[in-house]
Fold each of these.
Amino acid sequence: MAKNALYDSNATMYLLGAVMRDPEVLHESGYILSTEDFKGLHKIVFGAMYNLSVEGLTNLTPGDIDL
């Protein structure tokens, strides 16, 4: 089975949206995500969201991620 067959882009978008609403969830011990869990553009977006949350932003917007 191809690895891409197991990657659900729609589910990934929902996950990224949830993280955008509450980026502090990335720092809770029960949730372990890294850029290796994502592909392509999703990997870049997650990396930006994670870095912004480390800097202390608690409410992310698409503009924050774009910058």
Note: The chain has a mean pLDDT of 88.
Amino acid sequence: MQVIFLAIFVSVVVGVGFAIGLTVRPGDWYQSLDKPFFTPPSWVFGPVWTVVYILIGVAGWRVALTEGFRAKSFGIWAAQMLLNWLWTPVFFGAHLVAPGLAVILALLVVVMMFMAIVVDRVAFWCFAPYAVWLAYASALNGAILILN
């Protein structure tokens, strides 16, 4: 039963992330922007987000098992998920770089809040690479704002 529960968590997180990524594409608008020297090649984003989404799903599953759906840490996990899913439509879909930066910075803060209160150490460590990636993505978003 726990394996099914894990599969549901990971499938929802990865599935919604992929659906958003497939329907809201960077396209010509993003290609036309000036980007900083530390912008990775486009092919990096898919594999990185796939791994990050799997880790987010595992963390959510672990919190649901160890602390329950009513736990504060699960509420924060859900909030970060909503902010995560919001960023792509704001930045790439609406072409709103400054509001995109506000969303991703809020997301980074919520992720750090989660890490500060979560009891389960596995969930904590699942969020560590996510926090690092968000810090990098926030710097990239901020640099794009400055350059454009």
Note: The two ends are 50 Å apart (CA to CA).
